[in-house]
Every structure is written in structure tokens, then in C-alpha cells.
Amino acid sequence: SNLQTFPPSQGKISGGSNPLRDADDTFSGPGNGSTDEPHSGGWLHKFTVGAYKPFFDVDTSDVMDRLKESLFPFRGTFTEKTADKPDLYGPFWICTTLIFVAASIGTFVTYVAHKWKKQEWNYDINLVTWSAGVFYGYVTIVPLALYVVLKYFSAPSGLVQLFCLYGYSLFIFIPALCLSVVPVEIFRWAIAGVAGFMSATFVALNLKAHINSAGERSILIIASIFLLQLGLAVVLKLYLFTVTI
């Protein structure tokens, strides 16, 4: 017979291919260790949709477990639990939800404040574009920069795993933004401070064990990561948690 048999496709997404990898094999993702070759080799494969399917191959229980883990920053076990299967699905929807929540809550609070003082109110579309730039930009640029820094100090980390970690670290800001409707400035500063501290601690502790391999510079790197995350909280407080009329 001229009929040929083909091995069945593996994974939750039919037709999915192997995840991308770094030169040092730390661009890890689902299906780690497979020896199958992608249909389009080399760098061209990284520009195909199929190359990124494995990083969105998660179910509801996976995402919920990772969201819960981000709310307990002192455990420092997130990177260990997601090492074999980091995802980009959760970070994408966390950032998208943050944009929607920031725009809607900010609009509602400003509307109420204007009506309370019987002043004219106009919707500010810049709140949406500004929020999108902050959240999408932060969760993309910061992990990329950290990836390069860790490479330089010979403590490379998986790029997708950094995207995953930073994406989930922003989840705490969703309930924080919702609580910002309370019209008390001190309370808003407290909420922004707690959310920023939890988010910064979550990222720093999950990277601490790995960054320790960078030697004497490890403390400086960890401190920079922590302070940068706190800086994000301050920016959000000034532009999203503050209502001016």
C-alpha cells in the first residue's frame, strides 16, 4: 500500500509546534524536551502563529492557580511552578482587563466627582490610550530589558517565563483600582502602596534565587527590580488613583 501513517498531534491545541528557544535553551515553554523539528526552521519559524500557540495552551485551572499564587508574594514559588509551562495567555488578559478597569473606574470616579460639585463633565479618551501604553508597554519592555541584563551577568532566564512572571505580578492592581472608588486620598495612597509592595515582592522573591547566580551584582539587580515595580505603583497612583476636577 502507498498509504503512509503519520504520528498523532500532541498537546491541547491541534497542530501546535514546539516553543521557541534561546541559544542557551532557557526560552522554555510547554513541550520542553521534544525532539520534533518545526516545519519551518530557523528564525523564520518565530514569525509564524504556530510558534506561539504552546504559550497560550492553558486551561482555566492553570490560570486560576497562577492568579492565586500572585496574591501570596512571600511564597516565591511561582517561577518554580511555571518553569515547565510558562504562558502568555494570563498576562495578556490581565493587562487587557487592567486597561478596561482603569478606564471605566477612572471615568466613573471623575464623573461622580464632577456631578457632586455640579460641574460639566467630558469623557477623556486619553485615559484608555494612556492605560494601554503603560500596561502593555511595561509588561513587554521591562522583561525584555531584564532578559538582556541577566544575559550580560551570565544568569540567563527564559524570556517567556519573565513575561509570564511580570504579567501575573500586575493582577493585584485590578482589585486595587476597584477600591480606588473610595473618595479618600489617604486610603487611595494606602491601596496603591500595598498593591505596589505586594507586586514588587512577588517579582523580586521569585527571581531572587535565580539572580543570586549573578554574584555580587545580584543584590543590586534585585533591588532595582523591586524599586521599579514600586515606581509603577507610584505612577498608577498619580495618574489613575488620583481624581482632579
UniProtKB/TrEMBL annotation:
The chain crosses the membrane at residues 91-113, 133-150, 162-183, 189-207, 219-240. The keyword Transcription regulation does not apply. It is found in: Golgi apparatus membrane; Membrane. It comes from the Eukaryota. Residues 1-17 have a biased composition (Polar residues). Residues 75-234 form the Yip1 domain. InterPro entries: Yip1_dom (IPR006977), Yip5/YIPF1/YIPF2 (IPR039765). The keyword Nucleus does not apply. It is a multi-pass membrane protein. Keywords: Membrane, Transmembrane, Transmembrane helix. Residues 1-39 are annotated as: Disordered. PANTHER family: PROTEIN YIP, PROTEIN YIPF. Belongs to the YIP1 family. This is Protein YIP. It comes from Brassica cretica (Mustard).
